User: Fold these one by one.
Assistant:
Number 1:
Amino acid sequence: MTNTIDEIGKADVILITGSNTTENHPVLSSFVKRAVSLNGTKMIVVDPRRIKIATFADMWLRPNLGTDVAWINGLMHVIIKENLYDTEYVESRTEGFEELKQAVEKFTPDFVESITGIPGEQIEAAARMYAGAKAGSILYCMGITQHISGTDNVKSLANLAMLCGNVGIEGGGVNPLRGQNNVQGACDMGGLPNVFSGYQSVTDLAARQKMEEVWNVSDLPDQPGLKVTDMIPKAHDGSLKSLYIIGENPLVSDPDLNHAEKSIDNLKFLVVQDIFLTETAQKADVVLPSCCYAEKDGTFTNTDRRVQMVRKAVNPPGEAREDWKIICGIAARMGYEMNYENSEAIMKEIAQITPSYGGITYDRIRHEGIHWPCPNTEHPGTPILHIDRFTRGKGVLHAIDYIPPAETIDDEYPMYLTTGRLLFQYHTGTMTMKTVGLNEIAPESFVEMSPADAANHGLEDGSMAEIASRRGRISAKVKISLKAVDGTVFIPFHYAQAAANKLTHAALDPVSGIPELKVCAVKLTKAA
Amino acid sequence: MTAENKIIINGNEFDFDPGETILEVARRSNIDIPTLCHLKGATGTGACRVCLVEVERARSLVASCVAPAGNGMVVQTESSKVIESRKMIIRLLLSSGNHNCAVRGSDGKDWTQFQLNVQQDDDSSELCPVWGDCRLQDLAYRYQVSGDQFPATETRYPMETVNPFIVRDFSRCINCGRCVQACNEVQVNKAISFGYRGAATKIIAAGDRPYADSDCVFCGECVQACPVGALVERDARYQYRQWEHEKVRTTCSYCGVGCQLYLHVKDNKVSKVTGVEDVAPNYGSLCVKGRFGFDFIHSQDRLKTPLIKKLGVFKEVSWDEALDFVAEKLSGIKAEHGSESIGVLASARVTNEENYIIQKFARGVLKTNNVDHCARL
């Protein structure tokens, strides 16, 4: 997030899109609900499902799946045409306005309506509401990113925010809601193919030299490696021989599971390090038992970049070990000693070579976490990014055109499928499915559909439907719901028994490598 | 600060900001006015009357949680009139239900019969499930009050135990309304409200239905807000006694919000989870997963030893054997097929320190940048 969770209450207009906030970020959603219900903050929700947070909104806009660039360009078309943008901000803080203006020229409300299905007058009203904010906050999640146009979608939201002068101010911002406890930290620490910790590029000689010196190694590889979504096809074609997977269950969470499973089976050597024998671990040659969060010390970095303490409360079961100790044990056996007394000693090394974490010490975050960038131990941290300037100087307004999703409906597969999580389960369920009460409330997969779609397919609430895409088929219980809009069904991806990801499409965003998990074409039939 | 904004509490002068309540000024100045119904961040209701204070020239005692501080106001927070009034309120509350802590009094026959009745209601031979962790009990001790001056009120509504997470024990509810505020003004789930009237008042969900049949999402904010034993975590009820537990503060391991929570630990086991109040980012709030979804920690299915697959079957092995084997295989593949033939998936589930070590290992030892994690999935 460019801004903090606390600042949600300081926005006067909130735009939420591609985030089922009350189910996926429940505590954060209460900041939104309080602002809207008790403080009169205005809210626009743009989402293909009539989710709970939409019931709190002043406006709910319903786009067709995968048409985000179109409606965002539509808002900007209206804002520019009606001269509602922040001319001073655009002038002093950004570049590329003329190109952007040209690019959104054709996205008239009528044209946008023809692509997105959102009535033109709603596009106009939403544009005026967002542009009218003193501080407008955009919150988004995987409904924006998990598309072949995911990068374009995010850039478009950034365009919209900069156009209205909403980046670098209190209560504003472009705020991705991170879905995993430490997905922010895993990125910050260099758990990515192109960067070391603190987003220092592996292609940067100075960065490599710094790491080589501190790590006491030589010949660090200088070309970006493979993204996870590239590793799977490489495993399939046999050029990737071995995978070492830590705390992840791709055989439920990856797109197009049948293909992913063949790829994993094709590996010469698979190591899985986890707390449970997951669907993925069962395929491994070696399984290494690790500690869960309650059994170790360390830090997580949350969605608003706040580095916070994790503390050991109980002993691990059996011989389970901290993940870092396991890795150090293997490194030593491969001829490289990594000796640390404890996790705090590792943080000292991180702070030494990671500018944005330079001022993070356990002592400082004992009571309350600090937002990075925090370059030194005198620095209070940075709750709001880009206040006076962007990292590169001026913010770029990108001219972006709309491209349709990779797979659209046709006569054979006439329904759209989108996927996501539920409040009462988490990701692939390895943790939540151990709590009886959660399973009691959310016991099994289902396919959520509108009353009309159910009637058209002769399906009754609670009956079994078969859902097929070009890549696979599953059976799931029918759940007729007013959340669903005609023509689009929803299936949660938690359940391995009826894995929604057997149906999903593995088409990737060319820049980020994210798969288009939020759109594919399916057909529904009554299960035999 | 203008000369007008001065208030005298217990003989000392304090500045206040216009709109601040007497309670807020007092708390800020380390003057302890007891409360039961007051919930920080929510609208004051003045419902419980425990926070009454004496204000010079006022006709009656004033509820400090709702009364704004006024210029030149002279306030006594522990005058004999205040104390008498508080004692009466506490006596009445103690007699209003199954408050079977020892403070209720011990006058022979009635006490025994009362305990027997309560134990039957509870289906347990233990004292109140929140004994030692109850704001009403605290007040009874502080003001040396017992509840046996008035006959115990009959329990009007049966206990609700039909959901997996929260026991609603109306026999211990003092109708302070903190749960209603927690639900409506903090989490804004709007699942519960006051129902019925007068002595029949009850906290109801969806027209007096069980939580499970209402808009309740089991965040448990109401449980954390309840000052007495009316709302208790089902699995912790009678298992959890505050004084036997150590509280360990940590960060939630589900979504990216990073809620601060306490793991309440006894004998190497987590018994319950509560939110850390007054600190960002969650200020005490949690969701159903963070508060109730911790059984996985002690699950029998946890991996306990390293495993190596031999002829298609996992065999338990020692750490030395497992690590030797992995090191040998990775070295072999690296030598035969090159570093680029190996991929490492770090994890959005483990700590920063661990992710750092994982990428250091991939880059520095395996010599590959094929390191990524599940951020995209």
Number 2:
Amino acid sequence: MRLAALRIFICTLSALSLSAEDKIYEKMDYGPFLSASFENARGQTTLNGKGSVANKGIAVRHGAREACSLFDTETVRMAGGWTGGWIRLQGVAFDGDHGPNPGPPKGAKIFYETNPGPGWSVDGSFKDNRVLPNGGKGSQYAKVPLGPIPAAEAKYRGLFIHGDKVIFSYTVGTASVLEMGEREKIDGQDVMTRTFEVTAGTLDGYVKLADLQGEGVVEAAHGQAVVGGGENLKDATSVTVWGVPSSGLTASGKTLSLKLTKVAKGTRFKVTYSKGGRISTDVADLSALTRGGPARWKETIEVAGILGSVEQEKQLKKLKSAETPDADRIREIEAAPYVVDTLPVPEKNPYNSWIRVGGLDLFSDNRIAFSTWSGDVWIGTGVDASLSKITWKRFATGIFHGLGLCISKDVVYVLGRDQITVLRDLNGDGEADQYECFNNDVQVTPNFHEFTFDLQCDAQGNFYFLKGGPVNPGGRGWGPLSDHHGAIFKVSRDGSKFEVIGTGIRAPNGMGIGPNGEVSNGDNQGTWVPVDYIHILDKAGDFIEVPDLSHRDPAPTQPGTHLCWIPYDIDNSNGGQTWVTSEKWGSLLGRMLYLSYGKSSLFLVLQERVNGVPQGGVVKFPLRFASGVMRGRFSKVDGQLYVGGLKGWQTNAVKDGTIQRVRFTGKSTTMPDSLHVTDAGITIGFSGPLEATSGANLENYALEQNNYIWSGDYGSPEIKPSAGTSRAAKDQGTEKIAIRSVKLSADRRTVFLEVPGLKPVMQSRIKMNVKAEDGSRVPDEICHTINVVPPADKPGTDYRSLAPRNTKTSGWMIPAVVGVSLASVWLSVRRRFGCCGCGRCSEK
Amino acid sequence: MRLLGFIGMCFSAACAVAAPSEPGLALQLEAGGQSDVRVERLVALHVPAGEVVSPFLPVGPFKAKWTGVLVSDLRAEVRFSAVLTGTAKCTINGQTVFEGTKGSAITLNKGENPIVVEYTPPTTGDATFRLQWSARAFPVEPVPPMVLRHNPELTAAGMAKREGRRLFAQLRCAQCHIDAARVPMAGQGMPELAQDAPILANLGERYTQAFLLAWIQDPHAYRPGSLMPKVFSGDLAKPDSRAVDLAAYLASQGAPVGGKVDATQSTTGGALFANLGCIACHTTPGTAVADAGNRVPLAHVAAKWQPAALIEYLQDPAKLYRATRMPNFQLSAEEAAQLSAYLLTEAKLVLPAAPKGDVEKGAAQLVAAGCLNCHAGAAIPGRPSLADTLKTGWTKGCVTDAGVAHGQAPDFALSASQISALRAFAQTDFASLKVDVPAEFAARQITQLRCAACHEHDGQPSVWSTLDADCKTLRAAAPKKEVKEGDPHPDGPLPSLTWLGEKLRPEWSAAFIAGQPMAKPRYWLIARMPAFAFYASGLSTGLSHQHGFSCTLAKEDPVDDELAKIGTKLLGATGGFNCIQCHPLGTRPATAPFEAPSTNLATATERLRPSFYKRWMIAPTRVTPDTKMPKFVDEDGQTQITETLDGQADDQFEAIWQHLRTTKTAK
């Protein structure tokens, strides 16, 4: 026992030594507002509480974090206003806490709260016309309505910022309305205010002003209501209406509202919430604030990039000065076909912004934009060959976890958990003034883990993104479900149409859209996900992997057919997929790349189609990145690959945020770039010729296989293929598969491993120890999945996706060019091997 | 026997062509003109000066030679090195890869590569040897046991006499067959000789008479592998009157303590049975059939125990039997009651009521039947001396061949291989009983104590991990508890035993195995390491020696304050590896462990050998292939934190170690 007591003392010391280090999230200047899910002051959420709870809240900061107006975009309602601080910064993106969301800070003085549900009502009933998740059926679904209220009632359109002011824009029926929540100092007292302006149409209906729940006196007379405050009206709030008839104040049931009748375009009115004596006030002109205000992030950050070639020189110098220089390693570095350049992110910035890169893309002039997990968007200029001077400017703030960003027609679209936002710089000062809501149909619950990930755009301009399941704190099982948990979404190019196009994904940090509209996703090991995988969506509505998130009844009893499974030691946490669209990036045009967040690595994906069924595997590039890379884009200017990522959850990443460029050096590359499985064996194509002796030596190849168990457990052990679904000790592990012979083609670019009788298997690992013609090493392992084993004379089709020329495809279902034809592959194999191509040369 | 030995040698001579099918290498040892052979899982040894390298060899200069094959998945370039005192030579495929103190590279063939390692210790001081290898894909590490194979025919003779020696000690042969010249005093020489048998005090308080009779009549029917022999003839249907009397006497000692079975706790106890790993060593109490995994059956527990006594026993199984193989889980009274409820509710075996019996005659049997020889350590004359038994070459009495009547001798239910092992041991001079080799003790007891029932070992998954379906059933039957983040969960992997001797500081592992009070290192698991107090120190020392490590660690230099300061930063989120995300640091909880809760870093320097810490940090998946610990180091020994200590992983990890040392020395 004494031992334990001692330890506590030790620990205190070490805790002290580290405690000052972090809390960057407290120091960060989030800009005029921050989007998040919010709890009320009682720590309740939308699932179990009333008042200022919001799934898609925007907390407007008043003064220096002195007060807050909270607007809920899905119900188009001002959810609350308080003084005594802005918001409590708690949750996964702040202190990493698994569960709580931000809410009013401790000791906040609440001026008003409005209960969840529509903020506007035609008849004053404020009836919530949303359908419950899954139609109210199923105990696993949340029992509260989620997502935006019907657009015909009211629809959030976005916001404008002007200095520290935030002006919300929405429609009510056919009327367009601007609203601004503020904390004003009037006659020395704090007053929370709401200013409205009708900018189009005629406004009719009721706007929710305050919740009358709980103790207090309600008095709606003399143009004023008194709400809350307990028996002696201590702390009661006086609600006063300015600019429209105060006779509209209506106390009905538990809601205080304001009835507005035929309010014409151009009308401005205001509601004040005060706790002191009588006040007088003006009604501001909101339209004037929607044209862009003064720049607020004037300080830019200049950084010098680090070219991989410079790093290589340093490394070579070190290697060459060693006592016994490693000749192989030196040659390898000198002959490297790809190097990693670093574009230092504005890690140190005057706004204390926490730069954890969640999405990135490039403009047509090679300016680069990235979003951060903490809600920023930054734009960098000077992205040229030398990277000698990159200038970063803060462009936007306040996004609800910016984990995806896409530039379409040189306009920035950023994905938050609540919506896709279009960022517009109205006055050309390099900062976004308008945060237009492009689409906010996706549902959100208060679960900490239901991240929305990535944002991709297809050739037609449609957008795609992913949402994970509401993983419980601790990692196993799920919280209450929405209709959108664990799904892939497509949003039409104009933002009007939102579709679920795939279901059953767990924690999918990244997807890809191919040049021909191929939709792919990765996923992260966990409940029902034995290991990470890459899936190519076959058709809209497909079920992918996790039955609990299939939104089907009955739930599927087997997973979708994946392109490949990826062993845990190769990738433990997925990133996105990027298709090579550049001819300046070696010989890999049309191939898919796969990023690993957990291993900070880049992989080439080998794909074939066997009667339409995709299968393939991954090969790691011998490159390392400083963060968990998870987004990749090819520049249309320099044709190189730009990757970005962060360190947020388990990873071997060491930098909070990174942007790096994978640059092709023009040197020859020899790596596996195609893979075909038949009942005779495995054919591996290489992008360059192999050194003959090593390439043709059977001893340099080995094959191991295993399956996984698809179950509700967290992940799966490796199971020997002969063992079925047994988890018995003897059945865990891999099985070595004998390779009967190896044949190297005449051009030394194709290896045939003779393995008669191959069967479908989830994981097949080809281990190699071969050298390229120039003596450099070739990536030594291919991890692939065999879904189908075609006969030797009918191999699958090599799959590349090349951008369609002059075609009018509409989505991923009609690929215009899917690699080369089956017959041509077979011809090329025959040409390379002569009669040995099928692996049955002994029979001929 | 001579003939058999000769045949064995012939086999040995022919071994070059026989299949190297078994794990580990054959270790041939020579000392004082004698030779010996055993299986060794690693190419490593540590023999402190003045100690024997084998219990069957004299003290003094020795030579060690490992032979077998090294299996490679494919053709691969590797480089060998060694840590040693003395000199060594290693050849693979006939090519020298280590000689004297210098190693070199070789391209291994795919598949089997014959390996021969010869080691000669220095003339004075400890003998220490560890063969290591490295490759582009992995840093310097001990050659793992998973890639070593040998031909078992080479080692059969050496292993048979070892098994005979173990049986001789653990079956307590010398308690009856006394031989002061051959057998040392308890506490000297072979540790197992000091094992006791349960104290027979007040059995009537705890056990039913029906069980006592059934057990005396045929212990192996209830507990296969019981060390207790069947002493009397007959069976339970027609019991020997001596057994009946003896049971009556034992049952008369103390009044039954009784106690109630709270059936409502049964399913909670069942979940504990699954979650604590009881199920890895015992079949479920409702199971009557024998188990291929040699799990101990429990079908009889309800027929055996007074409920209150079982609760007490579960809380301290070693109270009346110091050397019991049943470990101490340090159960709370509540847990013990829950487990007991489960066992007593589910165990369905009903035993016939014992005939009344004559208590006085039973008391006499206690002496006459030799019970007290083991159970009180009081040898009763009248049994043949050890020397006498050896005259028959151990072909009669207790070691009669299976199926042949035992006559008056006790029946230990020995298998044919156990009998031949005992006979092989009989051929030795018994001097091996007077010494011991800790590495061999650890090897024996890892098997005897079923360590691998819970822990992965040398690439073999644990028994427990294969009982997933049964565990789930038991858990599902228990009342549902809301699981919150941070609550311990049942299915995390337990640490592997493979590298234990290299990994843990011996004093820490001894304390841990002995169950001394300390914070639970893997606090996120429901499973808990139970205490094997009697065996702890020997296991800890033996495992160190197996891995070629001394139990005395070199004194570390004083803490480098400057490095320690850098280490603080490297532990953190900004500019560091963010170790604190998954690892607590003292009372500071991990910032976001989620699915990867990890050990408290404040305990690292007291738990781990510094050398292992480095190896782990550089290539964690080489130690634990499915670990969630990230690998931060590239093949050039660099990390991506280039701005600190020039990006050199080795220096950075040293800095972290120095910081962690300051947290320790702060006490």
Number 3:
Amino acid sequence: MRLIVSYLIGLVFGIGISISGMANPAKVLNFFDIAGSWDPSLAFVMGGALVVTFIGYRYVLRQPSPLMSPKFLLPTRRDLDLPLIGGSAVFGIGWGIAGFCPGGALPALGTGRTEVFVFVASLLAGIVIAKFLQAALARRTQATA
Amino acid sequence: MMETVFTPFQSLAGGALIGLAAVLLMAVLGRVMGATGILAGLLQPAGWSDWSWRAAVMAGMISGPAVVLLLTGQMPVIQVPGTTAMLVVGGLLVGIGVTFGAGCTSGHGVCGNARLSPRSIVATLTFMLTTAITVYVIRHLTGV
């Protein structure tokens, strides 16, 4: 049951990404190209998603627990640090070069287009590289502490 | 440069569905709907029960375009302006960046901002800015 519900939630996300245009790199990049072929659609995607999530979360997070899990697992950190800002900056550079972000690319795999598979394979490689780097940095911090 | 048509209604409806999925995942499993987090957890499984819901969400996401094809008779349009090398370099940078930054457009941009998380707000402003600069440099300074 839990897996069927998870599948359906992923499906709603995938349909949303597909009809919103977030799976289309040309459309995403045109949002950022105000000086050129500007397409403001992305603001409507973010706007629609934010309004629904903002209102929905208010209600959901007042409940004692999720329906099929013991507790809400929310990020609790509030500090701003270099990995957050540097990582986000690097993500933006990659997004600007390729035009795909992870949430846009995963549903786009379903179109079967080779370009999407090339991007997602590189994305996975990047995640693995970063995990090794994080582990190496953590060891160094421990050694100097 | 590839021209695209402004689609306020589809984009707003699609965005609302993305939000609905985020709210449902929180309501049912108590989890953040972040593509980065879900994908990273698939690579480093913490047991069957943690891995299986992520795999199910991912399978649902990938089924999205086929369902859109069934409902509308049209596969979602995908136009890729970049070269293969740009997809590879971009993909690597996105993977490294979202791992250190602990989130992407869905995790920080939608879920985190909806909770008014200071980390997500700063992350979102940062990546929106560097994406815009990158697009400007590529399109208007180097002319690819």
Number 4:
Amino acid sequence: MDLSPIWLTLKLAGITTAMLIVIGVPFAWWLSRGKTFFKIIIEAIITMPLVLPPSVLGFYLLLAFSPQHGIGKWLHDSFDVQFVFSFQGLVLASVIYSMPFMVGPVKSALQQLPASLAEASYTLGKSPWQTFKSVLLPNIKPSLLTAIVLTFAHTLGEFGVVLMIGGNIPGVTRVASIAVYDSVEKMDYASANNYSLILFSITFVLVISVFVFNKYQAKSPLG
Amino acid sequence: MISINIEKKLKAYQGQQVLKVNHQFAAGSVTKIYGPSGSGKTTFLKVIAGLTIPEKGRIVAAGTTWFDAGTKINIPTQQRNIGFVFQQYALFPNMTVRQHLEYATTDELWVKRLLVLGKLDTLETHKPEYLSGGQQQRLAILRALATKPKLLLMDEPFSALDPKMKTELIAGLKIVLKQLGTTTIIVSHNPQELDGWAADELVFE
């Protein structure tokens, strides 16, 4: 069996999750601080991938990054970067597609912390950023872990977006979910079964570990 | 001296109430504030701390304008050098007793002295969830003192302490606050507990 789709999938999910920790967590923090109409619009936009058919998202990305025109052409001509049918395209699409899984739980966890925690830190002379790092973030660890694992698992399972923007190029964009589809099309049920079983096992273990971790997490006095 | 003259709308179930305070607090003085629930005592402390913004008025501390609604001056909380004891303590669940103090100051001797003052020196590696209510409250007070504030704002700071512990802690606080020259404002439901200490008082209606 060709294991490259599995490695590619894990690599994609790993890079996507890492990027979303860097981008998504501070973003969630920004969203959690006060509500303006502008923030509501931004939040709605990043939540869209949850409800939009993945093929629609993939279609728009395909249009936007097509090297023939617009942004895609500019990126291609100026930086020689191509997002369509390439691994970096998959990363970009996955970051957008999995964003709500990182931002959502982290944002609600931050909002559920009592306002007085941050206020107490401010009275000690600490800036909002220091407060975020030393007080807020450490106190939402279970939610943060859940968000990280769900983001990873969700990226493992994406199909529609990947197919639209990445296609099915072995070793470049053929991730495990595409390999299952491809194998079935070729009537190669044995390979389809193997890929499916591996994906199923990884995701199952991930979800179980989140439940176990959150169950044994010491209860904080905040409830 | 801290001079405060502010107006702040209070959110209430029935209609709207406006908190109006015009008062001068002498440097190093201890003032108790009391009055019925919902009369704006906590809000008043938060206004002084810069955690809530009043609609009108001015706050001037030792010649520095902290807040002026007219000229839109509003010095951030971080720069006001205050200590704040929250009614619900607002302790950090991720930090031990010692870490609470070290988060606020790098002065090791001061940390040690505070731990002894609050009788928490034997519990310094405990996190808040493993402290009793009274111990949590003492930690909240120690943390507020850690930055050696020029102004200490305390919201019901002794409500969870037994009478003996309260008397001892107040005796210790008197000495420390005098040394630091800290102006102190204490909100209390039980103003008699501060008799003989708080020379000044402010009644909210």
